[in-house]
Write a structure and sequence with these properties.
Blueprint (H helix, E strand, L loop, with lengths): L1 H21 L1 H4 L9 H32 L15 H28 L10 E8 L2 E6 L35 E3 L2 E4 L4 E7 L4 E5 L4 E5 L5 E5 L5 E7 L11 E7 L1 H9 L1 H7 L7 H4 L10 H16 L1
Parallel strand pairs: 1-5, 4-10
Antiparallel strand pairs: 1-2, 2-3, 5-8, 6-7, 6-9, 9-10
Helix pairs in contact: 1-3, 3-4, 5-6
Bound molecules: copper (II) ion (CU).
Length: about 300
């Protein structure tokens, strides 16, 4: 029995470890699209390697001990209080590993949040609201117009509560797709109007909570043209699953064309990311795939027969 347990533990350990080593793309994030992304990736790699070694060593020992201390039918069991020295050693080693990984990673995390953006970076405000993202650009004056809570009303098309009497609001652009210029640093202000949401774009390696009452600043530079998906990564209510939006990283010329006529530009260049079919309106959605239609018909005929 001890030997069977050893084999099962080792088999699960080596098969699961094999997939991480042989097929990293199955476990891994999509190709990176920001300048600071590779640093996050190398941090992930250090963590994976360190944790992988600990995992394999612990599981190999577990299997070995299950076999070594198997029931031999005669020896009486004895109670152990443990080994203080051993416990101290592995607690200290774990603490060193944990604190060390944090120290290695903290500057990467902090540089996008605590250091200010460079002057001339492009401003964009990202607001999460159950269950939609809104993106606002300050327009040619470089200033966001004032917002008032009493004016927040998605049904009037003014979900952000922008005050029309503020001159700075006149040229503000609000979009439901995030359009960003490639190779330009972004000065992002993150907001939430109701509950905590979380702005996450896997390709950007960027994930940050949006908290009601806080203006969270962060900055990063997208460096690959393409269409990506924004997911809300905070369970924020019953419609959380559909709280996503498209982000388009485009050339400088395209970006300027978008700022000039946002609606028209987005109609001509609709977002075409990996999940774009899911973002379509229901009326636009395609009929189910043939296999699914077949299954539905089969189900109907079964129902009729009964
Ligand atoms: Cu959300």
């Amino acid at each position: 029995m001890g030997l069977a347990l050893l084999l099962v533990v080792w088999l699960i350990t080596f098969v699961s470890t094999y997939f991480f080593i042989a097929h990293p793309s199955w476990m891994w994030l999509p190709p990176v699209a920001t300048t600071y992304g590779p640093q996050i990736d190398s941090q992930f790699t250090y963590t994976y390697i360190a944790m992988g070694i600990v995992f394999v060593a612990a599981q190999v020992a577990l299997g070995l001990f299950a076999w070594k201390y198997r029931d031999r039918g005669h020896a009486a069991a004895y109670y152990s209080h443990g080994n203080i020295r051993l416990e101290a050693v592995w607690t200290i080693l774990t603490a060193i590993l944990f604190v060390g990984l944090n120290l290695m990673g903290q500057h990467i995390w902090a540089q996008a949040r605590f250091q200010g953006p460079s002057p001339g970076s492009e401003q964009v405000e990202i607001t999460g609201m159950q269950f939609q993202w809104y993106f606002r650009y300050p327009g040619s004056d470089g200033k966001y117009g004032r917002t008032l809570a009493k004016l927040e009303d998605p049904s009037t098309g003014n979900a952000l509560g922008i005050d029309p009497d503020d001159p700075a609001a006149k040229d503000d652009i609000v979009s439901s797709t995030l359009v960003l210029p490639v190779n330009r640093e972004l000065d992002v202000t993150l907001k939430a109007l109701d509950v905590i949401h979380d702005f996450f774009v896997p390709e950007f390696r960027f994930k940050q909570d949006a908290v009601p009452g806080l203006l969270i600043h962060m900055h990063f530079t997208p460096n690959r043209i393409g269409d990506y998906e924004i997911d809300c990564a905070e369970l924020c209510g019953s419609g959380h699953y559909k709280m996503r939006a498209g982000v388009k990283v485009v050339s400088e010329a395209d970006y300027q064309a978008f700022l000039k006529a946002p609606q028209q530009w987005l109609t001509e260049h609709p977002w075409n990311g990996p999940m774009s079919r899911g973002l379509m309106q229901e009326s636009e959605a395609k009929p189910p795939a043939p296999a699914l239609q077949l299954a539905m018909r089969h189900h109907q005929s079964q129902a009729e027969n009964h």
